[in-house]
Amino acid sequence: MPDEDIETKYYNQRTGKEEWRCKHCDKSYCCSGGTAAPAKHLTDPPPDGHGLPKGAPRTAKITNIRTILELACVTAKEHPRKRRRLNDQSGDSIDPDQLEALYPTSTPISILGFRNPDTHETIKKWIMRQYEGQKEKVKQRIQSAKSKIHISCDLWTSPNSLAILGVVAHYVAEDSQLEHHVLALKDIDSEHDGYHLATAILEVVDDWGFASNLGYFVMDNAGNNDTMMRSLSLGLLRRYDIRYDPKSHRLRCQGHIINLAAKAFLFVTDNEKLKDDERHGHNVTLKEIEAWRKRGPLGKLHNFVVFVQSSVQRRQKFLAISHNRKLARDNDTRWSSWYTMLRAALHLRGAVEGYFNKWVEADCAGDELSPEDWIVLEKIKPFLEKLKMTTKALESSFATLDNVLLAMDFVLAQFEAGKEAHIDDPIMAPMYNSGWAKMDKYYCLADESPAYVAAIVLHPSHKWHYIHENWKKEWADSSKKLMETLG
User: Fold this and answer.
1) Are 41 and 22 in contact (CB under 8 A)?
2) Do residue 438 and residue 313 come from a single domain?
3) Backbone angles phi, psi at 439, to 5 degrees
4) What does the pLDDT look like over 276-289, one tens digit per residue?
5) Which of 310, 266, 251 has its CA nearest to residue 448?
6) Which of 71, 86, 127, 300 is the most exposed place for a label (fewest CB within 10 A)?
7) What is the pLDDT of residues 243-257, one digit of tens each?
8) What integer best gives the mean pLDDT of the chain?
9) Nearest to 422 by CA among 441, 435, 405, 407
10) Is Zinc set as a keyword in this record (predicted)?
11) Which domain holds residue 422?
């Protein structure tokens, strides 16, 4: 009889639907039509069917099980000693006879339709069997996809200190549905260089069988990802004789680009490898305080927040003066945390100034914000709001590739407007110049892939009109040449 077991259901690539297939003949039925027709085919006498005996009605079994469970609840309440006796045993050591004793004497345990795991490996085998069955379904959809199989991947460290490479596939399936599937979470126990990352990616591609249909990669801007793409290209050529351009197929995470531009704006730095802040504000040295202080108003604000949050007594003092409203702490990994800290501080400006007026402490005396410092912070906040808004527009599954260059055009325009408006400002001018330079660097790198321009041109509401209206003529001409490289 048809059931949900993987061995009785098949995927028809021609129709794009699942179907039941009779093991006694070549008859098949669409799964969406229910089980009545295939069941009739099995039980009807020959030659129309196979004359198999009819099974017990499923509804009766469901009713029986519901009755059993309801009676079991009553039994457990009336005989708590039996309930405790069962709870004291592990799952694989429950005696079926003892379990049956909990139910009405007229009900055999076999009617429940389940059994205990035979060994401690049984449940693992059940899970792996289900996994392999589902994986085979996904593999069939990937291998019959209408589009190329595009990959987004990232390397991160898990809470238990494992280096995990996540690999996600994005494609249009045979039935024209946009699909996303996690293909692998690879434990990278070797060096995190491009060669070893490419080896891991090739293993995933080989396992899922789409080397000849590999599309674009979306990754952050780490240097080892460039090396990984070159190593991947060599691996595809050697193993499959496939020519794969590592530059044109390399797309960059726009959130990461905005993150770098925002940091360059905030701290006027070219350092793209800002490390995680692991100090949590408890062991800050005098040298570190002086270094932050040199960064201007933001550095002073950072020092003050760290100073307050590194002591329970100081936290209580600030909460008393701020009516239980807390300051937000920044971190170096996400520029948006600086925006959050800045917004909270501006909202609590009176409490911050009141703290310095009421408690003068030597450790933070040099971090008192002057009226001019607060003016600078007021100027920074609205610009960071625009960057945050742009980042949000490029997040989630709703963001598409055609928005990337449009968003970069918008951000660059904001930097250029800021440069013009603060050309004589000794603090703000370098900030806007630094952020613009970082953003422009990655804007130029977008020319290495035709995918960005193609996404705009193929969008019905943009086409070439957007490029001709917003870009210089020489940029539009180079874009057309870039489009010609697409096969």
Assistant:
1) yes
2) yes
3) -65, -40
4) 333 333 344 555 54
5) 251
6) 127
7) 999 999 999 999 899
8) 82
9) 435
10) yes
11) 256-448
Rounded to whole angstroms, how far apart are CA atoms 435 and 261? Answer: 5
Residue 487 lies inside a defined structural domain of this protein: no
Question: Which tens digit of pLDDT belongs to each residue from 290-316?
Answer: 555 566 888 889 989 999 999 999 999
Write down the pTM of the prediction.
0.69
Bond from prior residue into 47 cis (ω within 30 degrees of 0): yes
Q: Are 38 and 29 in contact (CB under 8 A)?
A: yes
Is 192 in the same domain as 323? no
Q: What is the 3-state secondary structure (H, E, C) of the chain?
A: CCCCCHHHEEEECCCCEEEEECCCCCCEEEHHHCCHHHHHHHHCCCCCCCCCCCCCCHHHHHHHHHHHHHHHHHHHHHCHHHHHHHHCCCHHHCCHHHHHHCCCCCCCHHHHCCCCCCCCCHHHHHHHHHHHHHHHHHHHHHHCCCCCEEEEEEEEECCCCCEEEEEEEEEECCCCCEEEEEEEEEECCCCCCHHHHHHHHHHHHHHHCCHHHEEEEEECCCHHHHHHHHHHHHHHHHHHCCCCCCCCCEEECHHHHHHHHHHHHHHCCCCCCCCCCCCCCCCCCHHHHHHHHCCCHHHHHHHHHHHHHCCHHHHHHHHHHCCCCCCCCCCCCCHHHHHHHHHHHHHCHHHHHHHHHHCCCHHHHHHCCCHHHHHHHHHHHHHHHHHHHHHHHCCCCCCCCHHHHHHHHHHHHHHHHHHHHCCCCCCHHHHHHHHHHHHHHHHHHHHHCCHHHHHHHCCCCCHHHHHHHHCCHHHHHHHHHHHCCCC
Q: Which two tokens stand for residue 297?
A: 């108003």
Both tokens of 405, joined, read 């260059």
User: Sheet of 178-187: strands edge to edge?
Assistant: 178-187, 163-172, 149-157, 214-219, 250-252
CA distances from 254 to 46, 403, 411 (A): 65, 10, 11
| Domains contained in the chain, number | 2
What dihedral do alpha carbons 32, 33, 38, 39 form, nearest 10°?
100
Both 197 and 336 in one domain: the answer is: no
Indicate if the pLDDT at residue 179 is higher than 70: yes
Residue 163 lies in a domain: yes
Give the span between the Cα atoms of 242 and 236, in whole angstroms: 5
Task: Say yes or no to pLDDT of 121 above 60.
Answer: yes
